[in-house]
Write a structure and sequence with these properties.
This protein has a single domain, classed as Heat Shock Protein 90. The chain has one helix and two strands; from the N terminus they run αββ. It is 18% helix and 16% strand. The chain is α+β, with helices and mostly antiparallel strands and 61 residues long. A hairpin with an 8-residue loop joins strand 1 and strand 2.
């Protein structure tokens, strides 16, 4: 979990390009949210339990 928003990070190293992405999707999300002054967090209760991603953005002034 600590590396989820880094470029080219793949949690499951057995996954390759034909079976998964390039590992840049969450890095792009993190960058966009950060540039808008927000935060993005990820949480999970454990393996194969799914994940929750929370994006918080400031209100427009």
């Amino acid at each position: 979990m600590p590396h989820l928003f880094e470029r080219y990070c793949r949690v499951d190293t057995a996954r390759d390009r034909p079976h998964g992405g390039s590992g840049i999707g969450l890095a792009i999300v993190g960058s966009i949210v950060q540039h808008h002054g927000g935060t993005v967090e990820a949480s999970s209760v454990g393996p194969r339990a799914g994940s929750t991603f929370t994006i918080t953005l400031p209100t427009a002034t």
